[in-house]
Amino acid sequence: MAIQSGDEKYISFLFFAYLQGVPGYNKNLEKAYYYGKITSLYGDDVSGFFRADKSSKDFSLSTKVAKNKQIVLTQKAKEFVRTHPPYHYYDEYSFPFDGMDF
Questions:
Q1: pTM for this prediction
Q2: Packed helices 8-20 and 29-41: angle between N→C axes, nearest 10 degrees
Q3: Which of 10, 41, 53, 91 has CB atoms 3.0–4.6 Å from 81's, for a disulfide?
């Protein structure tokens, strides 16, 4: 349900969970690539995990996921973001109180 609502925090959690393989989530680099692309399209900077330069080759998803799979996953991520805008959970507690006149 959180994914369908566009919950940025949960999608970012899934990115790191599949990237590292935390308990309950097996390490899956293709899923990590997919959720990482969604996270970056939502505006978070996770570009360090996608660079393919020589210094970060061991940690780069761009070198560990096949190029043809990267294209498919990127397209799926773009389609997801197009149909599911990010949800920020704005409520009465997240409103800046200094902007209110009492």
A1: 0.76
A2: 150
A3: 41
